[in-house]
């Protein structure tokens, strides 16, 4: 589950170990009884081994320190480690759930988004790419979410996700999953995602361009759409039909839609017959090696009794 993976992640960060957490290195300072900056007479020995918060932070930030954070560490790692220095009580127990507004758990083997995730009451961004999630129950998602990224999972059904979707969600990432149309198209409407600005459906198995566009047209705030990698992207009028059908769209498949392009495809949305679910593939065979050239065979004499040799070839394409 996601909760179990998060707890394992916290253990890996070692937020209770020096220079983080509460210990002899900062106990008197954090307890509020006295400060290492203002040592009273007779207290020198008690604070001899203690460090200031600034010195402890420097141990995390100085690349020459044995406790330095890796240069490629995520902002999430850095935030939790520094909070564990400045306010270790905030990363102890259930309080740690209130620290994060963004949670990134990539390639952690997560299969389930469990109800424990609701403890993240301030969470606005949830990144769960490259896991093993096939279904996700929206009742277990914090209502504060604005970004949900599920790229590179095995999601094939959106029904559970759309039962109680986060009302303020602005980005939904479902690229590289197993969505098939048209059964899933009905879940991509304003009824479920009234504030959606960005939608990534790339590299799934969506085939019904007309049906999908009819649903997406209800998303009044949608500005960024990614559909590349789906079979429907092979339709010759694919891009033009989308550009004309979704006039508020700004970016399609990571390419900006300019005024010239919108003018070029003006009126295409009123010609759905041009966007049939079929594709034309033109294959040109260049040089072939390893087979005889029929034109090089010597012509036999008319009265020759030798058998006539005929060579023919064919190429098979599998889709």
Automatic annotation (TrEMBL):
PROSITE patterns the record matches: LRR (PS51450)
Entry GO terms, CC: cytoplasm
InterPro entries assigned to the protein according to its UniProt record, in alphabetical order: Leu-rich_rpt, LRR_dom_sf
Keywords: Leucine-rich repeat, Repeat
PANTHER family: LEUCINE-RICH REPEAT-CONTAINING PROTEIN 51, NISCHARIN RELATED
Name by which UniProt lists this protein: Leucine-rich repeat-containing protein 43
